[in-house]
Every structure is written in structure tokens, then in C-alpha cells.
Give the backbone structure.
Amino acid sequence: MSETASEDKRGENYVFSDMQENIGHIRRMLGDPADLVIRIISIGGGERSCALVFLSGLSDKAVIDEQIVRQILKAGRIGQEDSGLEISEVLGGLRNETMSVSQVLEVNLWSDVIKAVLYGDTAMFLEGADDALLVGTQNWKERSIEEPPTEALVRGPREGFTEKIETNVGLIRRGIRDMNLRFVSYTIGRRSRKTLILTYIQGIIHPGIVEEARRRLDTIDIDDAPESGFIEQWIEDSFLSPFPQLLHTERPDKVRAALLQGKAVIMLEGTPFALILPTTFVALIQSPEDYYERWMIGSLIRLLRYFAVFIALFLPSVYIALVSFHPGMIPFKLAFSIAAAREGVPFPAVIEALLMEGTLELLREAGIRLPKPIGQTIGIVGGLVIGEAAVQAGVVSPIMVIVVAITAISSFAIPSYSAGISFRMLRFATMLAAAALGLFGIILTFIMISIHLVRLKSFGMPYSTPVAPMFTSDWRDLVVRSPVTFLTRRPQFMQTKNANRASKRGKRT
Amino acid sequence: MKSFEYGDREIGTAEVFFGVSNMVIGFWILTLPRSLATITNSSDGWMSIVLGGGASLAIGWLIASLCKRFPKMGLMEMTKSVANRATANVVAMLFACYTFLFVSYETRGLANIAKLYLFDRTPEEAICLFFLLVVAYGVAGSSAALLRLNLVFLPIVLLILLLVLAMNIPFLNLNNLKPMFVTDWKDLLKGTKDTVFSFLGFEVILFYNAWINRPQKVRRAVLGGLTIPFTLYLLVFFFVIGIFGSEVTKNTLYPTAELAKQVEIPGGFFERFESIFFTIWTITLFSTTAMAFDVTIIALRSLFPKTKRITWVIALCPIAYLAAMQPQSVTELDILGKWISYAAIAIGWGIPSLLLGAAMMRGVRGNGCAS
């Protein structure tokens, strides 16, 4: 290789002028894989010939057959050696006249060629030319746009992101036809070379957020980022926090709403999960549906969700505290029935609670692993049968089963899946605290969680906004979701450059 | 705005307002009706509250004026620019001692009530230990975050207290308030002293002044923050006397918590509401203790700038714990509380007043002071 390359003045980093040598070189570079297709054709049936190189699984055969091969075979004069054309003119002719493909690039660096072929483009070498043409023929079998299974809504668009980043970009663009919508792309992964796109709306977002996000994205240096979760963990503020500092979603409408609030969004090739940044605690509990339904319904549902968070965190621990420390606080009649139900239970309340909560977590985990049709059955069988049998056998009391069931239902009512997991983790901490110190232990954990939340930041934004620091004007979208005609301003805590999202009294007619 | 930062070294007006309120509301509100009922006759204690509240508002005005006069300066720098370095060191040391003792006192007081209303067997030692550990966790972070925490906590505390009062309205017997104006003015003044004790604590703002971002609004924030406990004290006193009468109040250890005992939740979800009340009351006791501890550390760090915050937390926690364990009975704890309060009046109120006087006489001002 070195002998032949040394003849070329430009060195082996550049495309050679000999076509066969080029083919040999690319074969050696890729290790002559089975899916490498090399097709040599003569241009317009003349003496000049060219080679097409592509990977069969990544490229669109129809485009190559119809728009490249057929057109080249039909090309007229430029294929003849005696046409009197310079070799660069032939290349230009092929590029501008012959091929009917929208994306064609002329390059001479080997690294560009290899990269393009690995992305699914077709490289074309013309005999005698020391430039190569890269033809955009990327094609990848893609899942159709479906409703995201993890974030289903009753009312709202039925579309979700797919694994293909171009589609996802399109989904966002289709909802915000604003020329200020910006897409900054990065290549992530030393080996995987995946595309990552940072999206924001210039003129709304505070430039500091973009600056900070770009600074952190620039530091990423890994082999492969298989999922946006990798990116999330790489750029989050605190890895010790149980709370997610970037919100992930599959819903384009959620992403678009975030962009219009002055947030930024990160999308990664190969995953339907986009990351929204910065994130606040309140955002974990909000769902797009709050805005699609009328304001009273939206507000009440949201209130219900705050209640669900409270139950998911504290209900089992309150049960433990009341039963083992403050039985006097339970109303008299209920205290009797609890005592009667716990009569045969051999364990203290905390063991009972840990046992049932542990079983439930197991069931939940098993339900995900099992094949879909069986998963539900096992859920029902496991939940009902084990619960019933445990009570019958006197291992746990029926009240405990009720407590565990309500807690589980509440934790599913939280819209963000990862936030639900955070609350599940913290629930065990509060249970242990309640077992040690009763109600006092619960309030101490509450204080600690609050301290943590107030201290936590997501991309420079305090996690506990708009409560602390206080932004009273944002409270109209905190617990109560005010009527849309009142929500005329973008969130103040985002410090957006453009503050209004609706005109105060509507359009004058 | 240079970069996207909600500064950790900045304290807004709302934080000052809520911080002052939450610092003042604490242990004393539980006992204030008792001590007033012991000294004054019938319902006349309200006059003491008004007098004491008026006095603290005046001192609040003085302290806020001092803060405004020296924007972006802590007490240490203020003293340095008015007097000299040595005086500043002494002042900082005095403050550190007083706030540190205050931490121990609050911790022990909390353990006492917790024992009374929540636990029967758990020893006070354990309660103090866990509480102090949480305080240490709170203090380990930035001061700004600690002040910000008040924005979350104060509404919860106010909510539970107002709930208790609202649910007690049916038990209110206005005849208990009569007769009025039957107390000697000397006794009223004695009562005022006790009220003043319950307003102590807001002088910590002198230390936080270094990070307050809008010095021109600090006066309004401090006075506004003081009116909340002022109103609460008046309300609580009227309710306690109106419900229990003067005689019963005299003999009740924590009359305010007894108010909660009366409450019956409609629907009967819970009984013994006072346990819930006290559980939530822990939050405000925590805020008070944590801020006092924070000020101790700020004062010490201004004396020894090279030592890290976390070092102080680790070093001081065991001492605070041991100090909290010293009083052997409620009476001894009360005596400790009294002495701390005297110290607070001398250190927390006296020194700043002197400073302001000296600064005005000498015409010393902080940098960037507008007027």
C-alpha cells in the first residue's frame, strides 16, 4: 500500500487517482466486510468507468439502481475518452447533470469517504479523478410514528418520537415553524459516531443556558452513547441526587412546549427519548394534558398528582409510625380493627411493610421482563393471589395490603417515570426513618429532602423554582393551572428574552 | 446578566422577609401565653405583646438601617469600618458564642417537647442526636440555600398554626377575656420583657447582609418579616386566654400545643392532633436552629477565614450535642433560655444599636450606599 501511495504526491490521506487502488484501499480499511458492495460501471457505455461503493444494509438500493446506476449508464458524451473533456469536468458533469439525487458532495479526504460510507452514503470513484463523490443514499428501516407507550394521554396528539433523528427533528419543526428554531449538531461517541442535536429557540431562551449546555456537551468523550440516558448522566449537575435533573420524554408536543418556555432539548440518534433541560421539581409532576383539558379539570388533576406524590412518599411510613409509635393517634374504632387484623401477624409493622413493598417492587420488575401478554396476567395473579394468600397465612395484615396498593397506584400516577422511581427509592428511606423515630423521623426525612431540593440545581437553575427562589407570577401555573387566557407570560424563572407568549386581551378585531 | 446563574451568594428580599419570620417564630410561641398569663392579669398580656412587638420593630428598624447603611457587608466588616479590627473580632466571637448556645438550647427544647407529645420511650439523647445530624446536613450547604428553604417551610408552618386556630374558633369563650385593663403597668413591663425574648433572633440578618442583593429594600423586608410573628403572638395569646382562661394557662407547660389538643379533625382521620401539630412545628424549630448554627459558622469563619465550613460543622456538632445535654430539668433549661435571651439582647440588639450610633456620629458609610 505504501508503495502505491507514495507515487501520489498528496499522501495516503487523500483519494488516489487510480480507481482500482481506491477500491483496494477502502476494502483494506473496512476489512473487506460481507456487506460492502462494489459496482464498477462504464459511463454511458463509453471507455471511462467509475466505481460505486456502499454498504448494502445502510443504503437505499432503489435510489442507487434508479437514480445513479441507470442515469450513469444512460449518460452520453462524457463517458467517451475523446469527448475532449478534462477529468474534473467529467466529474462535474456526473455530479451536476447525470445523477438525479439531491445530496452530492465532492471530497478528497479518505476520512470523509469512510465516514460517509459508514453512514450509508454511496462513494463514487471516477477512473483518473483524485476526488470522490459522496451521494446521499442513507436509508434505514424506521419504526412508524406511534403513540409513545410510556406517556399515553387521553387527549392530545398521538405521535411520538422514533429512533431516527431526522424524523424527530421534523416532528419538532412541524409544530414550530419559526425561523429562530435552532438545531446544533454534535457527533457523540468515538466509535459509534452518533448524531446528537441540541435544540432551542433563539430569542426566547436565555443565552446562558445554551452556553452551559454546549460547554457540558463538549466534554463528552465516550466510545458509544447507546441511549440519551448516557448523555443525561454525563451532563447532570449532581450524580448523588435521587432526582432526575433532566426530564426525558417521547412526546413531541411536550418538547415543543418546553422549547416555547425557553428550555433547551437534546435529542440523540437511535433513541426516541429526548432530554429537556433545565428541569425543575414542579415539571416532574406536570403533564401536557393539564393544558389540553379545561383549566378546572387540569388544576384538579394536577392537585391530585401532588397528593399522589405525598402518598407515594409517605403513606407506608405514616402507617408504620402510627402503628408502632403513636397508636393513640388512630381513631379509636379503626385502632381496634387494625389491632384485630394484626393479631396473628408475627412481625413488627416495619418488617411487614418492607416485606410487602419489596414484593410489590419485585412484581413490578418482573412484569416488565415478562412477555407482554403474560405480564398482565402475572401482575394480577401475583398481586391478588399473593396479597390474599399473605393475609390468609397471617404474614401481613389486610390494612398493610391496602396501604401498599394505594401507594403503588399513587406512584404510577406521577407522569415522569424516572421521578416515580426517585419517589420509590425515597419511600424506603422514610419507612426506615419512621421505624426508628416515628412521625419525628418522617418529618426529619421531609426536612432533609427539602434541603436537598432547595440546594439542587439543573443547569444553573434551582430545582425548587418557582417556590424558592420565589416567582409569584409563575404560581398561576404551579398547583392551579390558570385559564389559558391568563397564562400570557412565559415562565419568569426561565429568564426568557422574550417574555410574552400571548397578548393580554387577545387580538383586537 | 452575565451568565445563567441564580447566585448561591445572593439573597433576595423575599428570603429576608421569610427568613426573619421563620427565625423569630420558634420555641417561644409555645410558652409565651403561659409566661404572660403568670405575670399579667386576665387578658392584659396583649398590651405586653404590643409593647414588646413595638420595641422589636424599633430595633428591627435600627438593624435594617445599619444593614442599609453598609450594603454588602457582614457585621464583621461593619464593625471594622466603624471601630477597628480588634473590636470586630470580639463582636464576631460574642455572636458566635451566643448563637452556638442558642443551637444547643433549641435542640434540647425540641427534644423536651418531642418527648412530651410524640414519644414515650425514646430517650432525649437520641432525639437530639438525630435532630442535630439533620441540622448539620442543612448547614453543610450554602447559606443562601438555607435562607431559601424558609420560602418552602414558613407557609407550611403558618398553615398548620392558622388551621389550629381556625378549628378552635368554636371553643372560644369571650368571657374569659374579661376583665380588661386590670394589670399594673409594672407587671406589663415585666411581661414585655418576656415578649421581647420571643422576638429575638432576627439580628442574624446582620450576617446575611453581605449577600443581600437589594439593600434599599432590606428595611421593608425586616419589618414585614417581624409583623408576621407579631400578629401570630397576638392571635395565639387571645385564643389561649379565650379558650383556657388565665388560670388554666398559668399552669399549662405549653399552652399553644394544648390548643392543638382540642382540635378534632372532621371525619375523624386522626386523633391527637397535637402530635401532628408538633411534628410540623419541628420544621420551624429546625429553621431557627439551622440559621443560628449557620451564623455561628459565618462568624467563626470571618475570624478564621482559612478553615472550611465543613470542618466547623464537624467540629462544632459534638460540642453542641454535649452542651444540649447539660440541663438536667425543664427548670434548668428555662434558666439557660433566659440567660441566652439576656445575652441576645445585649449582643444581638445592643451592639448593633451602638454601632449605628457610632457610625452616624462619625459619618461612616459603606461603599455604594445611595443615600
